[in-house]
Design goal:
Layout (H helix, E strand, L loop, with lengths): L9 E5 L6 E5 L9 E2 L6 E2 L8 H5 L5 H4 L7
Antiparallel strand pairs: 1-2, 3-4
Length: about 70
């Protein structure tokens, strides 16, 4: 539960450089602005307009976005 709502906490990040996929647990108390691909070592940052790497490269948006609030603001 997050702010009284059910949210998914697992998201699979796909590296846009090498297409490597890894399922990660998203934090509920912090944004993830940088993520290093374990395969090619590319350092991912959110795309313009997104608040975190999960919103840009994950299969599931971050918890604040899932519940309809602003992420990390």
């Amino acid at each position: 539960m997050y702010e009284g709502k059910n949210v998914e906490l697992e998201s699979t990040i796909t590296c846009p450089n090498c297409n490597h996929k890894k399922t990660e647990m998203m934090p509920t108390n912090a944004c993830v602005f940088f993520y290093e691909c374990e395969n090619c070592k590319t350092r991912l940052r959110p795309l313009e307009g997104d608040c975190c790497v999960y919103c840009s490269y994950g299969t599931v948006k971050c918890p604040p976005i899932q519940v309809g609030s602003d992420c990390c603001k």
